[in-house]
Every structure is written in structure tokens, then in C-alpha cells.
From TrEMBL:
The keyword Signal applies. Residues 2-116 form the FAM69 protein-kinase domain. GO terms for molecular function: non-membrane spanning protein tyrosine kinase activity. InterPro entries: FAM69_kinase_dom, PKDCC. GO terms for cellular component: extracellular region. This is PKDCC kinase. Pfam families: PIP49_C. Keywords: Kinase, Signal, Transferase. It comes from the Eukaryota. GO terms for biological process: skeletal system development.
Length: 245
């Protein structure tokens, strides 16, 4: 969410009515999340000036660990230097820390492609935004889910109930107190639970993430059932033969 919001912001800056805008003091502390969207808190160090040049050798974009040769345009400006500076800063301050983690395994190759392409500046902001929007579509639609054996048949579902959160934890999790993950459906939640040897049950409620995906709470063992009209608890058949049910 943070990376996509940042890319949308940089897309706007690259195509603003004032021209391509570069953020000269590009640091994470200069941004804040407002209603799920990343905002720039300080525009004092923003500029529309692009580096003047006479030849291509005047257009090297230097960073502490990398340098990129750019073209000198016919009007004597380094082509796309503001856009590329913003994009590489997004890569080194945000993408490298956030993109490799927490995505479903099937989507990680797509995010790795974005990471590598922006790290080498092979993508401009247009291509980067297009790649992010493609991943978002796959994520929201569930198209990334590969055909696999159905796992939900291994579970008993009890509508109108939930269980007490236990001490079962996983990574990544929306809650540090338990194992809370976003899923496309109960079937995906069942597949996740089956892939974790300690998982014996999971709960789906009406809670949703920013993409509209439901949140599933995974449990290491069935606990006492609590009435909850907005929840459904799924318990492995192999774990449901005890006295609790």
C-alpha cells in the first residue's frame, strides 16, 4: 500500500502542470500516510529545474552506490533526470525495505521484477505504475492463486461463532498478538492453515484490508466458542473430535 501510493504520487509529480518535479530532500520522514494515501509533508525542497547540459557526459545521475548516464536533450536539458531521481530514491528508501516482504508467494516474482527494474532505472515512472497496478489487480482479484487441491473440505465451518485468540503467532501478521493474515477467500485461508503444521483452525469476520480482502485469524488449537453473528470459525476435522464440539 505504501509503495503503490508513493508511485502514484511520483507519477503525478512527473506529469504535473508545472513540469516534472523533483524532491531534493527525499527521506521517509518527509512523508505521512493520510487516509491510506502517502502525502509529502514539506515541499520547500521541491524543484522543477532540470539539469542543463551540452552533451551526454554532463548528465550523470550520481547516488552513493550507483551512477546512471542520461541523455542530453536537444533543448539542453538532461532527459527525465527529475523523474529518475525520484524513482531511484523511492527504490532505495522504500522498495528495498517493503517490497520483498509479506506478499503472497505467487506475487513475489512480480515485485522482484519491479525492484530490479527500478534499482537499475530500466523502468520509468509510467512503467513502474503500470507494473504496480497489475500486481494490485492480481492481488485483489485472486488471479494469482494457482489451481491446487481444495483444502476447505478438510474443515468444519461454524457460522455465528468465533474463538478466543490464542498465543499462536506467525509472520507477517496484521497483529503482533496473534496470526492475522489477509486472504482472498476461505479456501486460501484453508490452504495457508494446512501449510502450517501448528494451525488447527481459523476465523473469518467482516474485517477487511484496504484492498477489500477479508482478514483471517489462525489458531494453533480450537478453543471455547463465542457467539459472534459476523464471524465464521473453520476447524480441521482432525481437531474437532474432542469434547469442545
Amino acid at each position: 500500500q505504501i509503495c503503490l501510493s508513493l508511485v502514484r504520487l511520483l507519477f503525478y509529480l512527473a506529469h504535473s502542470p508545472l513540469g516534472s518535479i523533483v524532491l531534493l530532500d527525499f527521506q521517509p520522514r518527509q512523508f505521512v500516510m493520510v487516509d491510506g494515501n502517502l502525502k509529502v509533508t514539506d515541499m520547500d525542497d521541491a524543484s522543477t529545474e532540470e539539469l542543463s547540459c551540452k552533451e551526454d557526459n554532463d548528465c550523470t545521475l550520481d547516488f552513493p552506490t550507483k551512477s546512471f548516464p542520461l541523455k542530453c536533450s536537444a533543448v539542453g536539458k538532461c532527459e527525465g533526470i527529475n523523474e529518475k531521481k525520484n524513482l531511484f530514491n523511492a527504490y532505495r528508501y522504500f522498495f528495498t525495505y517493503l517490497l520483498p516482504h509479506s506478499a503472497p508467494p505467487a506475487l513475489r516474482p512480480f515485485l522482484s521484477d519491479i525492484l530490479n527494474a527500478t534499482g537499475d532505472l530500466r523502468y520509468g515512472i509510467n512503467e513502474t505504475l503500470e507494473a504496480f497496478e497489475k500486481v494490485l489487480h492480481l492481488y485483489k482479484s485472486g488471479l494469482y492463486l494457482q489451481k491446487r487441491p481444495l483444502h476447505l473440505k478438510d474443515y468444519i465451518s461454524l457460522k455465528g461463532f468465533r474463538t478466543v485468540e490464542g498465543d499462536y503467532k506467525c509472520w507477517p501478521s496484521y497483529s503482533h498478538l496473534g496470526c492475522l493474515l489477509s486472504v482472498h477467500s476461505a479456501e486460501e485461508a484453508a490452504a495457508i492453515c494446512n501449510s502450517q503444521s501448528q494451525c488447527q483452525s481459523f476465523i473469518l469476520t467482516q474485517r477487511r484490508t484496504w484492498t477489500g480482502r477479508p482478514l483471517a485469524s489462525f489458531q494453533s488449537s480450537p478453543t471455547d466458542l463465542i457467539p459472534d453473528a459476523n464471524a465464521v470459525v473453520y476447524i480441521k476435522r482432525s481437531a474437532s473430535s474432542g469434547e469442545r464440539l
